[in-house]
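Sample entry copied in:
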Amino acid sequence: MNRLGINKCHIRIMESICLNLTDTFLFTPMSREHHYKTTIQWTGNKGTGTSSYRNYERSHTISAEGKMPIEGSSDPAFRGDKTKYNPEEMLLSSLSSCHMLWYLHFCSEAGVIVTDYTDEATGMMTETADGAGHFTSVTLHPTVKVAEESMIETAENLHRKAHEFCFIARAVNFPVHHIPITLIK
């Protein structure tokens, strides 16, 4: 013990706490927030609004400033227009495109030359007895073409890293699986 009544054990504990606090508050990169805004405009009023379940369309337009609008509706099972994207398809597309963008980023960093990328994402939604529902899983099926055979193993392994970084996959409460196919250009 020193003259303040602090022994070596106390000092080690205090140093550990200080190091942990320093690591947490001084050396952790600050989180950055990104803000997004979209507008949904219902376009399905056939003149009587929602006067009855069958008297209105589920059609709507999705827009964001400076971008082309997307025509949307509900799934045809819920009286939607099958020629327009529904929210369930948009969710699959969000997962698929987020994964692809991270994947291409990591391939470029790792020296894997991707020459083509196509994904046919599939999802399973379960409707519950009360009419609500939820997704139970999504599977991405990316087919990737790389420039050389020597790149295949790294290319396949980078799907795992892309999944770990995908903002959308990290935000959902169901598993997102990957069944990639890697081909040579």
Remarks:
- Confidence is low (pLDDT under 50) at residues 9-27.
- The first strand starts at residue 39 and ends at 42.
- Residues 38 and 64 are 5 Å apart (CA to CA).
- Helices lie at 8-25, 87-110, 152-165, 167-171.
